[in-house]
Amino acid sequence: MKSSIKVLLFVTMLTLLASPAFAAKKVRWKLAMTWSSTLTPFASAPIKMAKMVEEMSGGDFTIRVEGSEKHKAALGILDMVKGGQYDIGHSASYYWKGKEMSTVFFCTVPFGMNADEQYAWFYYGGGMELMEETFAKFKVLSFPGGNSGVQMGGWFKKEINSLADLKGLKMRIPGLAGEVFAKLGVNVTNIAPGELYTSLDRGTIDALEWVGPAMDIKMGFHKIAPYYYTGWHEPATELQFIVNKRKYDRLPDNFKAILKAAMKASSMDMYIENFAGSVDAWSKMKSEYPNIKVKQFPLPVLKAMKKAADELYNSYAAKDANFKKVLESQRAYQKKAREWSTISEYNYIKMSNELKQ
């Protein structure tokens, strides 16, 4: 009888151990952001993602989100996630071009795809596979982390009428766009976000680019520089979630699925939040600061920018096989996608604007 009871207890214990409620292992992760915790909508994506992960896992998988004000290493996210100080990070992959040049393509590049085209390339055009290959050397996984859409070309104190107006101009503009401008005679610099307003106000720089109305209005640039140029350099700025691969591989399958779903959902939500924010912010800017002049760079300037960008791409591709591989993938997909973008979105907006006249 005692033997039977022991067997029954043993079987019961095995059953309990196998049940989801008993077997669920508590997972506690930390996430580091390049941004401060208050810099919405960039900070919105990781914060909302962590909330979704906790809710979908019933509290068994939690992620503590820390902004740059906490860890003090805004541009050290990749290294911290790779090294295991943080399990996951939220940043922008073009910050890592000094470590691996082809990472720029997983954020945005001058004259590249718009957000719709880029998301299609990521999920249905081979982009995710190329991103995984590129980041494998860092022992991390990378996932889309939210898009700003087309970013504005910057705030300028003086109007740009020709290439001559760019010569000697002091401008804050990072990434490949900075290299393009440098080829055209601009004195390019990169200044910490907290110092941008003061630098522009005091004349340390003559111009700068930030993001778009939703985020620019908080910085106050429109109070100093009246010329607001439309975009060319960051047509689809995709942020990224970076995940320590060893930590990810240890997750049970259901937690992996929850994490991936939450990252994807929060990324799209950030795209929507930023668009809505820019709609409201531009309406306010236009009303309160009627002297703002929205400009497009003159065609000769844009052509020179495009030529400089292509020269840079071809130069890097000649030296870097992976850069060439990703560049060719994006160029091919953009050519195919742009035809549909023109037929659909572009022509609809063009037609709508013509009806107003």
UniProtKB/TrEMBL annotation:
InterPro entries per record: DctP_fam, SBP_TakP-like, TRAP_DctP_sf
Residues where Na(+) binds: W210
Organism: Maridesulfovibrio hydrothermalis AM13 = DSM 14728
Protein name per Swiss-Prot or TrEMBL: Extracellular solute-binding protein, family 7
One Pfam family it belongs to: DctP
Residues involved in substrate binding: Q151, R172, E209, E234
Keyword Signal found: yes
Annotated Gene Ontology cellular component terms: tripartite ATP-independent periplasmic transporter complex
UniProt entry keywords in alphabetical sequence: Metal-binding, Signal
PANTHER family: EXTRACYTOPLASMIC SOLUTE RECEPTOR PROTEIN, PTHR33376
Signal peptide: 1-23
